[in-house]
Write a structure and sequence with these properties.
It contains four helices and 31 strands. It has 498 residues and is mainly beta. A five-stranded antiparallel sheet has the order 1-26-27-30-29, with no helix packed on it. Strands 4-5-6-31-28 form a five-stranded mixed sheet, with no helix packed on it. A hairpin with a 4-residue loop joins strand 5 and strand 6. The longest helix is centred in the last third of the chain and has 7 residues. The two termini are 35 Å apart.
């Protein structure tokens, strides 16, 4: 297959398919659509019409709290364990700013308790050092409305041998810690500048409900073998204001052999991102989901939300898997890194598209129920002003919030088969089973159009590979050579008949 030419612009500034060089003129088509006129072949892309839609109600999310990892070495003789919970300030103190918060839980009565009481370390201290606007909430969290917060946890070494490992875990809500700011700082025994170390391993338990009271657990671990570490400081900041810092745990292993407690992260998400709700979710089929280790194989499955199809995957290396089945990812060995995977979903109906691609009322963000407003989300509306109606955006894989009509426009192609040249076009459509059918029509005069029958169409259509936004590029080729007679082609998206 050989494409002819590239994009060109209409008099209104919109880009359209470029026909065979030297033969094309562009004009606005009926209803705002675009047409490309050519000697042979000729093309027309009209806007399509839609139908009425209904709104789907949102679902209330449950609250949840991420769980801490309990290192196996916590019970070993000589380890040190500290736990902060329900931060407090003395009377007359209003801000947590360079204030020493000492560990304040000694008898948890659960698996976090070290069997040996001598392992409790109440000498460590935690400080908020970035903003004087940080205070303690009624629920015992450190919090600031107005500024990002910054923290230091200071460990003073006591015991035999150097520190060989440290595990630091927190529970928080709202804004997240800045991953690039999490560092362990220590002073080399021989002197010199302090050394900053990024975590070697991590853990994450994010319930993913987006609820107001949800608490996320994040863990960080350092392998300090051979570094001669004694006293150290763990430092981190929040990415913005409004991080509620609820709890922290610190495990320090001195004079022992390092035993890895955490691992690497597997990030999963649905694609594409929506203005409302989620297209689906990824299920991690493993008993331990907070972290993963080198050499581990992790099976994944995807479940589509109501009104969506699961159509494929974006693998950790960025390549696409064109399948609605499962996916298994492997953490490399001997060394590995965090992995990220996305499940690709596609809307199966105009109703689903309208419900999820437009805003719903939200008092926090100030958005209105745009998905119920025909002037914004109706099938004939064009809120992004790119010349493509909302229904056209749905049918041909566009985004009604982005001026992307260029991506939607069909492209002229000349195809060769059995030494004959055939007129054709390419266009985008949503992947998966939907409520639309696509029909290629031909005309010699732009007045009378023919599409043949289902058993004998005028063109064959071949699906291209899946793309990361859940669309496919389809190639349509006329079944008969046009000869020297003028011919126009157009693609129409129509509701499927029962």
């Amino acid at each position: 297959m050989r494409k002819i030419g590239g994009p060109m612009r209409s008099p209104a500034g919109r880009r359209i398919a470029r026909p065979i060089p030297g033969t094309a003129t562009a004009a606005e088509g009926p209803g705002g659509g675009l047409s490309c006129r050519m000697i042979s072949p000729r093309f027309l892309w009209p806007l399509c019409c839609g139908w009425a839609s209904l709104a789907l109600p949102g679902l209330a999310a449950a609250q949840a709290i991420g769980s801490f990892v309990i290192p196996a070495q916590r019970s070993a003789e000589g380890t040190r364990f500290s736990y902060w919970d329900r931060f407090a300030l003395p009377g007359g103190t209003t801000a947590s700013y360079f204030f020493d918060h000492f560990p304040n839980l000694l008898n948890l009565g659960d698996d976090a308790d070290p069997p040996n009481p001598s392992n409790w370390n109440t000498n460590a201290r935690l400080q908020q050092i970035r903003t004087p606007q940080c205070f303690v909430t009624s629920s015992g969290a450190l919090y600031s409305f107005s500024a990002a917060t910054g923290f230091e946890v200071r460990y003073t070494h006591a015991g035999p041998g150097p520190v060989v490992g440290a595990v630091f875990q927190i529970r928080h809500a709202g804004a997240a810690p800045d991953a690039s700011s999490v560092r362990l700082r220590y002073q080399p025994a021989g002197g010199g500048a302090p050394v900053l170390l990024a975590p070697d391993f991590r853990a994450l338990d994010d319930p993913g409900t987006a609820g107001f009271a949800e608490q996320v657990m994040r863990g960080y671990e350092w392998d300090l073998t051979g570094l001669g570490v004694a006293d150290y400081v763990i430092q981190f900041t929040s990415v913005s204001a409004s991080m509620a810092f609820y709890q922290a745990q610190l495990d320090t292993a001195p004079g022992l052999t390092f035993q890895q407690a955490l691992g690497h992260l597997l990030s999963t998400k649905p694609a594409p991102g929506l203005r409302f709700g989620s297209a689906g979710r990824v299920e991690v089929e493993a008993l331990e989901k907070r972290f993963f280790t080198a050499g581990q194989e992790v099976p994944l499955s995807a479940s589509a939300s109501t009104g969506f199809n699961h159509v494929g995957w974006i693998r950790p290396d960025g390549t696409l898997m064109d399948s609605n089945g499962g996916l298994t990812v492997t953490f490399a060995t001997p060394k590995t890194t965090d992995l990220a995977v996305a499940a690709i979903f596609s809307p199966a109906s105009w109703q689903t598209f309208r419900t999820h691609w437009f805003n719903h009322a939200n008092s926090l963000t100030g958005t209105a129920d745009d998905f119920l407003n025909d002037a914004i989300s109706g099938p004939a509306a064009d809120p992004d002003g790119d010349g493509a109606s909302n229904f056209t955006e749905y049918a041909f894989g566009g985004n009604p919030g982005l001026p992307d009509a260029t991506r939607l426009a069909p492209q002229a192609v000349i195809l060769t088969a059995s030494e004959n040249r055939f007129a054709g076009l390419t266009y985008r459509r949503r992947a998966g089973e939907g409520d639309l059918s696509y029909r290629v029509e031909i005309s010699s005069d732009l007045a009378s159009w023919q599409s043949g029958t289902e058993a004998a169409p005028v063109a064959e259509q071949i699906d291209g590979p899946l793309e990361s936004d859940g669309t496919r590029t389809v190639t349509a080729r006329l079944l008969s050579p046009p000869g020297n007679s003028p011919v126009f082609l157009r693609i129409k998206a129509l509701p499927k008949t029962p």
